[in-house]
Structures are given as structure tokens and as C-alpha cells.
Amino acid sequence: MEKLSFKVAEFEGPLDLMLFLISKHKLDIYDIQISLLLEQYMAYINRLKENDLEVASEFLEMASRLVYIKTVMLLPKHEEEGQTLKTELQGQLLEYQVCRLAAAKLGEQNQMYSTFVREMEPIPVDRVYKLSHSPAELYNAYQDAIGKGRRRLPPPAQAFSGIVSRRVVSVASRVVFVLKKLYRTGRTAYLSLFEDSQGDRSEMVATFLAVLELVKAKRITISDDGTQVNFERRRKGKEN
């Protein structure tokens, strides 16, 4: 028997292998000699095992099927059943052969079309807006566009009115105010210094800081109970 020499990767399945064996040994696909086909098929399986290659389960399953067909055909009482199994196998091989030929033709067409290049054609641009919308949709879109435009504008002056419009009161001006108030009477109630502020926080804070500055400079004193502010007059000749 001729020694097999072929590449394992060429066979996609057991049917592909059997078509190769039928073509190689010139067997009649319409009247397959199961014994000869089984012998060639098992030679392929054994060759894989000798090369320590993994044998796919579908190849082993087909080998078992061929052995079963050969066994049944050898039994006189089951000869018809064996012939039926043989006919089914021949039908599968014929269908697979047709599919393989069709795939080869499609592959040739694909290679031919893959080299086809079509030049670009100018496409006319239609700038007419052909959709229609209800007035409510147009109004909402207009309002949305206005809102986006307004968000890009700088904030209006009214947004800074609470910050810029507040009156800035300096501590120096309140120092003069406290000294004038105490110069007339020499003393006054502590809370009376804040009566003219009328709730203006900036003026009240500036007045409080002015009192602290005057106490630090020893120009005024505050009573122990914190209710009176006294003016300290400096005598001439004792000032450094």
C-alpha cells in the first residue's frame, strides 16, 4: 500500500479527508468500496498518532461509523441495512463535494471583485430643510437657542449689586466720629456709638474696630462693666 503523505491542516473535517482519499485512489464516489476507504482512513488516523498529533473527535466518530458500516455489510441478515448506511454516506459526500465546489467559485469571484475600484462620484447637496414642525416645537427650539446664547454672555451688573453697592466705611472715619462724640461730653454709653449705624453692618464693624484702636492707643477707656466709654484727655508737657 502506498504510504500516505499529506498535511493535516488541509482537511477541515472527516468528509474533506474522505473526498481526498477517494480522489487520490480513484474510487467511485457513487459506489464506494467501504473496506478500502476504511483502510486508507485508518492509515491517516494512525499517522496522526505516530506524530503525537491530537485527533479530533469528529474524525474518530467517522472512523467508528465506517467500521460499523463495514461490519453490517458483512452480515448476511443485515446486508440491506448496511447498503442503506452506505447510501447515506455517499449522499453526504456528494453534498459536501458540491458545497466545496460552490465555495471555490465564490472565492474566485471574491478575489475578482476585491480588486475592483470605483471612483468617487460627486453627490449634489440639497440645502433645503424638508421636515415640518409644529409651532410649539419651533418656539421651544427658539427659547433653547436663546438660553444657550445668554449663558455665553457676561453676567449683568445687577448680579453684582449686592456686592458693589454696599457702602465701604473706613476705620479712620469712625475714629474721628468716636473722638468727636466723646470730646463734647467726655463720656458716653458704649451702645450709643452704634446708634447712628442704623443696621449698616460695615459701619458697625468699622466703629468696633475704631474703639479697639483708640483703647490700644490709650485715647479712651471702657468701664469695668463695659457700658461706658471715657475720653482720656492728654496734658501738655507730658506727651512724649
From TrEMBL:
<keyword id="KW-0159">Chromosome partition</keyword>
<dbReference type="GO" id="GO:0007059">
    <property type="term" value="P:chromosome segregation"/>
</dbReference>
<dbReference type="InterPro" id="IPR003768">
    <property type="entry name" value="ScpA"/>
</dbReference>
<protein>
    <recommendedName>
        <fullName>Segregation and condensation protein A</fullName>
    </recommendedName>
</protein>
<dbReference type="Pfam" id="PF02616">
    <property type="entry name" value="SMC_ScpA"/>
</dbReference>
